[in-house]
Input
Amino acid sequence: MRDAIDARITIDTASSGSGSGFDIINSVDAQSWRVTGQNDLFKFRDHSAGLGKLVVQLGAGGDVFLHKCGNVGIGVSAPAARLHVDGAVRIGALTGTALPDTAATGAGGLACVTDALEGVCLVFSDGPQWRRISDWTTLT
Output
């Protein structure tokens, strides 16, 4: 039989520096994950590789919300789509030759091309090719 209790683990540190946290270690393959929190910052880090995998930093720009339905909101507490952003969005800028293969990207991929004939332009993948958003012509 289970009891309905409010179970939690509290990690409290009085030292300054990297904040309080805990490590999750797989002793079989030496994989190590570190979870830390300090002031307005929370990190979930692949400690073995030295890479931050999930970093949430609170500030004046808003919060990041991860919902169990799979939607992510940035500055939106109840996201209505897989990615719901309150404000401008910036995507990576690439040269035309650096665009990934459209077959691998699939239909719906977006990119900003910096060296198109008419200048900087947004493009999308329709599956087989990259097209300019402005007039749907194929990017050459």
About this structure: The mean pLDDT is 79.
